[in-house]
Design brief:
The chain is 21% helix and 33% strand. The chain is of the alpha+beta class and 213 residues long. β10 and β11 form a beta hairpin.
Length: 213
């Protein structure tokens, strides 16, 4: 997927950052997913990613402690779960017309969730010179795992999506957990977290994205 991120923490042309973030989510042609109403903690927006033609491809909603390396709590103490929604996209021509882009799939959601977890949980004690090498190595591993969802690195976990039991592929690591599956409406759901158990979570369509601001 050739995408560009749209984030909303800043203010541009007089439009508040939170408003800009919501606008990115509202421009999607598919529903967003988050944790269901059983979760009563903080909810926050992250970012959406758009294709070169401007269409939104995927995005994430956050729940719990907003991960930050500047926070009073260290990454190892923060409790959060992030839900990634990936739009259903068929095989299509690349923007430059020289090739094709793969259709989105559950593996797409698993890859985005795996790389998202790494970006939020890299070891803070690691020297800067080693950090990039570590991230590249772990990202490569995450890609391989996402491409082989039936492999030994994954187990099966059944969780409700809009109240319907749904099968997800699930794995744990020292950095947290990752899962991925398909929603009933054809979208793909990925999720990752740390400090919050994936067991017992439920997912649901976000009825009002403004509730995350």
């Amino acid at each position: 997927m050739e995408t560009t991120s749209r984030t909303g923490p800043d203010t541009t042309q007089g439009v508040p950052g939170a408003r800009r973030a919501v606008d990115g989510y509202l421009s999607a042609d598919f529903p967003w997913y988050g944790l269901d109403e059983a979760f009563s903690g903080p909810r926050w927006l992250m970012q959406v990613a758009a294709a070169t033609d401007g269409s939104v491809e995927h995005g994430s909603t956050g729940h719990g402690d907003e991960p930050s390396y500047l926070a009073e709590l260290g990454p190892e103490d923060q409790r959060f779960a992030v839900v990634v929604t990936v739009a259903t996209r068929p095989v299509r021509r690349s923007p430059d017309g020289t090739g094709v882009l793969e259709a989105t799939s559950v593996s797409s959601a698993a890859w985005l969730a795996g790389s998202g977890l790494l970006s939020r949980t890299w070891p803070t004690h690691m020297e800067r010179a080693l950090r990039q090498d570590w991230l590249e190595q772990q990202t490569s591993i995450a890609w391989e795992l996402a491409d082989h969802l039936q492999g030994e690195g994954w187990s099966t976990l059944s969780l409700p999506v809009d109240g319907t039991p749904t099968e997800f592929r699930y794995r744990e690591s020292e950095y947290g957990w990752v899962l991925a599956g398909a929603a009933g409406d054809g979208q793909h759901i990925g999720a990752y977290g740390r400090g919050m158990s994936a067991y017992g979570l439920g997912f649901a369509v976000v009825e009002d994205i403004h509730s995350y601001t």
